[in-house]
Amino acid sequence: MALRNYKDKSPLLDPSVYVDDSAVLVGDIQIGANSSIWPLVAARGDVNYIRIGKRTNVQDGSVLHLTRASKQHPQGFPLIIGDDVTVGHKVMLHGCTLGNRILVGMGAIVMDNVIVEDDVIIGAGALVPPNKTLQSGYLYVGSPAKQARPLTEDERAFLTISAQNYVELKNDYLQG
């Protein structure tokens, strides 16, 4: 795996984290227990920071970045991802905050200063434009993403199941 320093910051990973050899993590990144970073993920914690919680998986080809401080936004926008989050293949997350128990569908884009509350599904290919809040308990689809309907109980349960499935998979990879 490629863990790279940027200035005086380097990625900090819980010992139980799996990072694929082809992933690149740069700078101020912290990843919590039992999380996984899959092939070809690029995560740059250079002009702000990235925090990833426990039991979260970031799947193949996803890009994680953030927004630097500016006159309009003195703190910039870090990238914060909670616990039990599944980030699908080729997702772009940029300077946003994701709560807990979220599924971000394949190819979705979540932009600066978006807040995704707990227990949300973002459909494949969705575009969440800047400065939006996605309320807890709903499915969001489209471009721009719109609230489609409340999540079913089965969908809510799946959010945790999906995260646990990836914990088991990363354990298989770590065991060789």
TrEMBL record:
Transmembrane segments: none
Gene3D superfamilies named in the record: Hexapeptide repeat proteins
Family matches, as InterPro entries: Hexapep (IPR001451), LbH_gamma_CA-like (IPR047324), Transf_Hexapept/Carb_Anhydrase (IPR050484), Trimer_LpxA-like_sf (IPR011004)
Official protein name in the record: Gamma carbonic anhydrase family protein
